[in-house]
Amino acid sequence: xxxxxxxxxxxxxxxxxxxxxxxxxxxxxxxxxxxxxxxxxxxxxxxxxxxxxxxxxxxxxxxxxxxxxxxxxxxxxxxxxxxxxxxxxxxxxxxxxxxxxxxxxxxxxxxxxxxxxxxxxxxxxxxxxxxxxxxxxxxxxxxxxxxxxxxxxxxxxxxxxxxxxxxxxxxxxxxxxxxxxxxxxxxxxxxxxxxxxxxxxxxxxxxxxxxxxxxxxxxxxxxxxxxxxxxxxxxxxxxxxxxxxxxxxxxxxxxxxxxxxxxxxxxxxxxxxxxxxxxxxxxxxxxxxxxxxxxxxxxxxxxxxxxxxxxxxxxxxxxxxxxxxxxxxxxxxxxxxxxxxxxxxxxxxxxxxxxx
Length: 356
Description:
Elements: H1 2-11, H2 14-40, E1 57-63, E2 78-84, E3 137-142, E4 158-166, E5 170-185, E6 210-215, H3 217-229, E7 231-236, E8 250-254, H4 259-267, E9 293-297, E10 300-304
Antiparallel strand pairs: 1-2, 3-6, 4-5, 4-7, 5-6, 5-8, 9-10
């Protein structure tokens, strides 16, 4: 079919080809004109072109240099970097303060983003040093079954530390430190009850020998100095004490063999315990006997028992000193001033002779 059309065009004369081309051009022009005219009556809708959304950026902390494990992060090792938020990994660190002085868990290379998974998020992951408060230091002292509360004090408890100073004849105890956190006993830092041979948890730690505390540096100096002058006792605090601190107090006990006790024992009579205490017998005032005077009057003997009255002391003159003059002699009113009669020369018969 196509070959016939080609042969037909080849058989046409040049004039016929020109006429055919003019007709085809007219048809094409008419078609274009009609199409443009029809489009002029319809509104032209221009669809808006969607603008690209702005890229949201986020600031993250990246390593400036390679940081090795168990290295404490310093601000000089890090830098901030802006990057699209959609490519920021989960748990990325966005602030220096969140990781300052934190130990690195794994190696972080320069340019890596710091994440929580790469640093120690929990203090337990840092080992024993993670349990020490930031403002304290760990210090250890020797204890035994008695000074260590028989092993009942466990890591995590709080204790008071008592200092006992022993002298030659006395012992003094005072409260050295109060409310001290106990980090470990021996090398146990878990605080869990030890397991016995039968699998039952024990109530206390066996043979406590070393106690480790968390104390500020100034209290560490105080504790170490105290261990050189006396013995340290631990006093276990209750889980819910009435108060965190008590008033500082001190108690001294002297030996019965001290020189002071010997001196007191010599001056104060010792009453044995349980012996009845005898009360002193009250002294009843005894009046002195009234002087008696025998008077012989003829054949009769008369006794005069009139009590004598002591002479009154003269009062001191008002406003002046007393005088040292001798007191006047006042005779007793019971004395009769007469001379006894002389005995008769020839006494009557049957009368006794009384010599004066």
